[in-house]
Amino acid sequence: MEDIKVERLLINYKTLEMFKRFREYGHQELSMMEELQNNIVENNSESPFYGIYYGNNLVARMSLSEIKKEYDNYFDPPQDYLTLWKLEVLPDYRGRGYGKALVDFAKSFNLPIKTNPLINSHGFWEKMGFQKAQYDIQRDLGENPLIWLPVGVKEKELASK
User: What does pTM read for this prediction?
Assistant: First the structure.
């Protein structure tokens, strides 16, 4: 298998052009074009976007943001955690391990991870070791988050009503 390298994407017009391919092929809710356009500062290295290139083509991407522990409503003990969203692999490159490589990269920070999967993607997330979070109507606001727990971290117990 080829060596897959996850890279932090630069926020620039070249990346914006590459994101257009995802919008064409992907789900509208996965489009990161608006976020990228709103954050364009030539080659900002603090981008929340990560991707995998095949040759010169961006073929897989995700957004990965750190949430500070004071806002943690999911994990015990409360701690910084990652929100992984908008993971997408272009159709011609699916089944080659790119999605797994992105998730493994996120796990390498050894922080708990929360994601909100698209319909029909639960099987992928379960294979990656994610589990359904206990649903809290006030916290989750209609989302059905999945979480990944590193060793020593538990899901926060919901207060019984």
Answer: 0.81
